[in-house]
Amino acid sequence: QVQLVESGGGLVQPGGSLRLSCVASGFTSDYYEIGWFRQAPGKEREGVSCISSSDDITYYSDSVKGRFTISRDFRKNTVYLQMSSLKPEDTAVYYCATDEEASWGTCHFGQDEYDYWGQGTQVTVSS
Predict the structure, then answer these.
(1) Per-residue three-class SS string for 3-37
(2) In percent, how much of the chain has pLDDT > 90?
(3) Which of 49, 80, 111, 127 is the most exposed, fewest CB within 10 Å of its CB?
């Protein structure tokens, strides 16, 4: 059974940084696609970033492009989301998820196609 566990959230001042981690287990392969999503209070969940199973394709939403970086450590089965220059509007619960059917070399923000989700980690950006 695939499991995803997020950590690293917390309270940070505007302009600060946080690194979120998504530890994965239960995959039959070392190569899998991961997406990061977030949901702010009263808003729909939205895609933030994703990384392909081939590890060479990444996407970012326009709202985080240039500030967030997604990466992977295969040895630790962990995907990171490095968040910098944080803004109050980045406040949300952040989730990682995986689409087991994602084609090699692709990733996407189509939430309905994601099969497994973590429990989420809260990020609050406030002074």
Answers:
(1) EEEEECCEEECCCCCEEEEEEEECCCCCCCCEEEE
(2) 88
(3) 127
With a CB cutoff of 8 Å and minimum separation 6, the contacts of 44 are: none
Residue 4 has pLDDT above 90, yes or no: yes
Amino acid at 105: G
Question: Is 73 within 8 Å of 80 (Cβ atoms)?
Answer: yes
Query: 38 has which bridge partners?
Result: 46, 94
Integer Cα distance of 113 and 99 in angstroms: 6
CA nearest to 118, candidates 36, 47, 54, 45: 36
Rounded to whole angstroms, the Cα distance separating 107 from 102 reads: 7
